[in-house]
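The methods section describes the discrete structure representation at length, but only in general terms. An entry of this sort, consisting of the sequence and the corresponding backbone structure tokens, reads as follows:
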Amino acid sequence: MRFLCLILVFLFPLLSYAGEILWIPIEGEIEWGKASFLKRALEQASRDKVDAVVLEISTFGGRLDSMIEMRDSLLASSIPTYSFINPRAISAGSLLALATDHIYITPGGTIGAATPVTGGLGKMTEASEKVVSYTRTLFRTTASAKKHSPLLAEAFVDKDVEVVEVEGGKLMYKQEVKKEKVLKVISPKGKLLTLSGKEAGQLGLAEGKPASREEFLKLSGLKDKKIEEVFPNLGEKLAGILTNSTVSSLLFSLGILALIFEFTIPGWGISGTAGVILLLLFFTGKYFAGLVEWLDILLFLMGCTLLLVEIFLIPGFGITGIAGILLILTSLYLSLVKYPLPHTPIEWKTFKEAIYSISFSFALLLAGFLLFLKFLPRTPLFSHLTLSTSLKKKEFTALPDYSAWIGKKGKTISHIRPAGKVEIEGKIMDVVSEGEFIEPGEMVEVVKVEGPRIVVKKVVV
């Protein structure tokens, strides 16, 4: 009896354990901070050996490169994954949902509208055909890997994809329909597909339409499991803000300009402190997003050092300054892209965006550098390096003419080696010899005059 009680004591925790799920909220814009957060959360789920991972999604989309990073993290996870779309998974958010094993959408929720776009000059335009084609393939393969409809996934991306429902509830491309009877056009040509929770459920994409978290847990069979919810940490939040292409370009450019202007004034002031803070924010955001390594920071510091050497130690502007600017721009480029050598259309798109950001930063940096060179001589720190006053014509005094002294003789009153002093006709003159050493008290003769330079030689008696 006692032995049986001991067995029950050890088995009870195992019999009563209902498992654990990790709850990951994905809210707002998809960016590098979100990608870093999801990767960290999935690594935690793997370490803790949880039974399931739930993504509560509410997003209108975001960066394509960040979206792909998050999708890859989900596909690499061996833990069962669930999407609870509450209330929307638009654009990049729909790919995240497709990368999970099970999809649930609230009754008023939506999923789809994922065509890639490019921003420029305040407006959004559709991405190139290559980018659209690659994204379409990405959606299709992701959906197929998780046993979701690849046709619906493609229709989310490409408005030219026509999907219809035929008898038996089967989905087909319209161009492949032959003898089958079409019951309903799901995605007409010329329109991107966006599905409501109800429509997604009818088409088999969503497994349920829970109106709340509690209902989701019940429908998904996760009701009795312990929930651990994770949130982005401070670094991941900062990364989301600071890795925005516009914000990061401004931080870098303004930081450099602030430091340049700081060197035009004595001591250390507000502009120098502001420059350091701006650059620290720039690299901090990139570091937490996983876009910056120590090599990138080292290149930046080397570039700044070479540029300062060129400005303060080497006259003119040459190889040192050019090398410094190239190192700075290289560090900026490496901090803006995940993969330095682009291969896929998405990576080429990111490459172009990085080049635009670098061009903007370079233009701002060049303008600041030219202003710096223009106003440098006027600053208190460097005013002593240049003539601060100019001589007007009426104030200018010509050099005295000593040509009349040629042939005159005098006596040295100091050593001439080869410069010294001579008394000629009662006047003490500064003279030089032609290289010979002349003792004091010797007779000398003026043999040459070159402006203010009087040349003498010893008189041989």
In short: The longest strand covers residues 81-90. DSSP finds 14 helices and 17 strands in the chain. The chain has three domains: 18-158+193-232, 235-384, 403-458. The longest helix spans residues 345-375.
